[in-house]
Amino acid sequence: MHSGQKQKLECALYVVATPIGNLRDISLRALDVLISADTIAAEDTRNTSNLLMHYSIAANRLMALHQHNERAAAEKVIALLARGLSVALVSDAGTPAISDPGAILVAEVRAAGYRVTPIPGANAALAALSAAGLPAPHFLFYGFLPNKAAARCRALQELIALPYTLIFYEAPHRILECVSDLQSVFGGDRQIVFAREITKLFESIQRCSLAEALVWLNGDPNRQRGEFVLLISGMAAQQEGLNADAEHVLAELLHELPLKQAVQLAVRITGAGRNELYQRALSLKSSA
Ligand code: SAM
Fold it and tell me: Is the CB of residue 178 below 6 angstroms from any atom belonging to ligand 1?
């Protein structure tokens, strides 16, 4: 059963968001486009067939577009657009091109001069942020961190001084090591929110300090299962004494200079207190 309507679509690439769990989280307009598009480019055609079947939409217009064939598939999509046809792009869940295939296709279609139009809807990062209760006006969506510990810690070091809520995607089999690295790089004071299985049967949203996070995760094996978004409170919420610009300058200088010199220069550049900067430099160095 669906409430969408078949219509003649203008020639364009439609970037269509699909549910991240609950199949009812799809817009009426997304259904209209999926019913009407001449071709549907899907990350996994079997997965998308299931979604289409659920809404009694014919699944005979599917083509595969995934990370291993995106450029070749983009050529095919452009050939379809050149014939005046319409193409819908979907990924396995959520919004295409957000930690999912699609960005290369969109760039190539735009470069070829065809219209690209978004059909907005579910996205795990924004759903998690909306229910996390981290009161910060700004956020940074990072997506997946590197798989290997050394690269992951290096990536996290780059984010230490940012005064924004940080949003990560993480796989369940890496959740323990990832949270352990978050704690060792950011220290124990910041807040973490585990947004797990959003919109699904076992949805849970848990907030605690990074110091408590591993104990909570290990408290029940079910807490490590399913799909996760991790949110970490930004630096500004922690360091009331030192403003975000001073934090940032100090962190950058510490990459290049010995601690004492970095602090001296940071005092001159930012005007912040020597003692405060020195204490902060010590804690940044020790978490590195
Ligand atoms: N394009 C998708 C979007 O718009 O959110 C993200 C795709 S990415 C390959 C998949 C990751 O998104 C998962 O590993 C997990 O981190 C997050 N995710 C997807 N669905 C989720 C859900 N229902 N609950 C929590 N996290 C989810």
Answer: no
